[in-house]
Amino acid sequence: MKCLCVLLLVLSPAGLAQTQGTNDTCGAKHLKQCALDILHDQAGIWTSPLRIHAADTAWLLPFAGATTLAVYNDRQALRELGHNQSSIDTSHSISQFGSPEVTIGAGVGLYALGLLSKNDKLGETGRLGAEAVADASVVAEGIKLATNRDRPDQGERTGEFWPSGTKGYSTNGSFPSGHATASWALARVIAEEYRGFLPRLAAYGFATAVSVTRVTGRDHFPSDVLVGGGIGYLVGGYVYRHHSAATSENYLNIQPMIDARTRSYGTGVEVPLERFAILFRKRSHKAKIKAYFRLYPYCSRVLHVQISGFGASSRSG
């Protein structure tokens, strides 16, 4: 016989710790979770056009216009840049620090440094930075394959898209720049984690230097780095908003649940109580409502509603 078990208003820190333990955080001990996070990110990123609102046109239209203008003037810009081998060599030396491999390595290094120094913020910066670079690089590579653009030193050096139609195909296309994408993704995460003027100047200065040297090194056209930088910036922000400890507490969180020990599965929904602040005279920024709906082999439907997180500094009523 099917049964319905309902548990309401469980004010238990121990219960909170137990449920949080089932949500692994990407890291050295949970590499599988890192892969799952990236898969979830990709699903959200590639379906994001379905969630565009009218307000997004405030930046989408100017960006589209700037990209069109850049593509139109790409050849002229490189012609006016000239050909100075010393400048090209210097540009190559600088831009190599913005490659996806190096930026992912930088993120992993920051993560390791954060673990060794027990600095959670630094560790999160490295972890999210590496994840953002991986996510953004996947997007950039997908667009490269779709656009199949010649690099400045390929073909007739005019940067044509699909220059030979479907007869010729390159897996190392020019549009967008992978280095610009990776460097801006890492820079966005660092700038979100450390919001002081100097950290942001250093992060975005680094990304700008990589982008400029990809053009002066004649590896890319200006429009390549413009679009690559835009992709990296947006994906970096996406990863930070969805995985940072500072922001995850303020968002509705829906997660699938699988418990091999009890052979149950279901869905968990977590809502910060601040979303219901109108019901309280004071906001409780740490309290949350968690609802879990599980299916068990012998008790088919179990609803668990839990309010937790109230402490000495949190009041309601």
Give the fraction of residues assigned to helices: 40-55%
Q: What is Rg?
A: 24 Å
> For this entry, what is the oligomeric state of its chains?
single chain
Helix-strand string: EHHHHHHHHHHEEEE
CATH architecture field of the largest domain = Up-down Bundle
What is the overall shape?
Answer: globular
Counted by DSSP, the helix tally is 10
The main sheet orders its strands as 1-5-4-3-2
Write down the CATH topology of the largest domain.
Answer: Vanadium-containing Chloroperoxidase, domain 1
Short description:
The protein is α+β, with helices and mostly antiparallel strands. The chain is built from 10 helices and 5 strands; from the N terminus they run βααααααααααββββ.
Describe this structure in words.
This protein has helices spanning 13-20, 31-46, 57-81, 85-95, 100-117, 120-147, 178-193, 197-216, 222-243, 245-248, and strands at 4-7, 253-259, 264-272, 288-295, 301-308. A hairpin with a 5-residue loop joins strand 4 (288-295) and strand 5. Strands 1-5-4-3-2 form a five-stranded mixed beta sheet, covered by helices on one side. Mean pLDDT is 77; it is low at 1-22, 273-286, 296-303 and 306-317. It folds into two domains: 4-25 and 252-308, no CATH class; 52-248, Vanadium-containing Chloroperoxidase, domain 1 (Up-down Bundle). The two termini are 40 Å apart. By secondary structure, it is an alpha+beta fold. Helix 6 (120-147) runs antiparallel to helix 7 and helix 7 runs antiparallel to helix 8.
